Amino acid sequence: MAPPGFRLWPLKTEAFGNENRKCATDVLPATYHYHATPGKRAVGDPAEDVPAFLQSELSLGGLPGLLKHLWFAGAARPAMPLHLHVARGREIVVLDQMHMHLLSTNDSEGRLFVKPVPRFLLSLKFCQENLQCPPGCPCPDPPVTTTCRGIPRSVALGFLYTYACLISSKTDFHLANEKRLLPRNDHNDEPISWPSWKTLARELLHTHAHDPSIFHPRFHRAELRLSRLNTISRLITSRPYARSHHSYGNFFRHNLAWTAAATVFVALVLTAMQVGLATDRLQEDPAFQRASYGFTVFAILAPLGVFGLMVLRALFHLARDMPLLLGWGGRRKRAAAVGAAPVFDAKLTAAVTVVGKQPEP
User: Fold this and answer.
1) How many angstroms separate the CA atoms of 276 and 15, rounded?
2) How many other β-carbons are positioned within 10 Å of the β-carbon of residue 300?
3) Which residues cross the membrane (predicted)?
4) How do residues 39-56 score in pLDDT, each as one tens digit?
5) ∠149-151-155 over CA atoms, to 5°?
């Protein structure tokens, strides 16, 4: 069993001065989305079931199952300052999903997905009430229970630590506020002050230096490459970590782009072979004749095979999604008929079940 201090919320900085006079749930969002069952999206009230909301909001999706292989996706180092990401041409994309935080793409846009800081994580009262374990909790290695807050707490601390690294200077602070990455005061929409942020960031750094074990190991490696995460996930689970195509048009455009580039290369080789066959030396060379014949057949069949595989893959995704598309209306009507109470009763169990799995889009 961990020492008592391990189960507590270690931060003491109050980012907004009047937070301690509020009801703890006042800092929660209006609603949140979760998956009651795989493939079935639902919308709930976070104040109805705060533990279920935290399990969903702070879920890392499929990352915990890939922790041993993250060395392939990113270096073990703190996050770079925000202004350096901008200077390197990366587009900061706001995405309110923890499992996508600080994942970068290698496409022409060079996107970096960043999750904004939720208001409730800067509320000392809320964190002390909802991210501390009860006395006698068996964390840091608890069974699957609804009382332990060890995993959500470590994810929250690791997430805040990345922001202490991202926002180092006042330049980073202004960039973060322009992107609305930091929460604002509910009364006047004013952002957190620079002195308050400095105090919180320094406390996070000191806490991390004192006991890094209370921070989730995912955040030991800040920026991760999404393409490499997809490769790791395909090798382990045969599924990508995150879909890179959300429409069939994007799917075909992406695949036809590299197919066109490969076709240009094949055309260059065929042209060179044609020139070679026009020379006396290569025209009578049996090995070159066989190579030319084989590559010509390959140049004819390969594009047809690649296009056929693309069509089959698109049909596979369509067939897999078809039951959900056809059955969604019926399930929604049945849920409305039985009322909302059973949904909230099952929500925590579903959230605990989904932790460690990839949230579906």
Assistant:
1) 74
2) 10
3) 256-275, 295-316
4) 678 899 999 989 899 999
5) 115
pTM (2 d.p.):
0.73
Which residue shows structure tokens 């208001």? Answer: 119
* Contact by Cβ (8 Å): 21, 204: no
Cα distances (angstroms) measured from residue 295 to each of 258, 276, 283:
19, 14, 16
| Res 278 pLDDT > 60 | yes
Residues 212-216: contacts with CB under 8 Å, at least 24 apart: 213/140, 214/6, 214/10, 214/153, 214/154, 214/157, 215/154, 215/157, 215/158, 215/161, 216/60, 216/151, 216/154, 216/155, 216/157, 216/158
Alpha-carbon gap, residue 354 to 356, rounded angstroms: 6
Residue 225 pairs with which residues in a beta bridge? 104
Cβ count near 340 (within 10 Å): 13
Give me the DSSP letters along 169-203: SHHHHHHHHHTT-S-B-TTT-PBPPHHHHHHHHHH
The answer to whether 172 and 83 are in contact (CB under 8 A) is: yes
**Mean pLDDT within 77-100:** 93
Q: In the numeric block, which tokens belong to residue 25?
A: 């749930």
